[in-house]
Amino acid sequence: MTDAAPPDPQHPGSSRPGPRRPGAHALAALGLAAPGPDPADSSPHAFPDGGRWRTEIPSVEGPEALTEVFKEASRLDVPVHRVSQGSGVWMLTDAEITEMADACAARSVELCLFTGPRGTWDTGGSTRTDSGGAGLRARGHDALAGCVEDALRATELGVKCLLVADEGVLWSLHRLRAHGVLPADTTLKVSALVGPVNPASFAVFERLGADSVNIPSDLSLAHLTEIRRASRAPMDLYIEAPDDLGGYVRMYETAELIRRGSPLYLKFGLSKSPGIYPYGAQLRETALSGARERVRRGRLVLDLLGRHGADGGMSPLGSRLPGPLHRFPLTHDKD
Question: What is the reported pTM?
Answer without folding.
Answer: 0.89
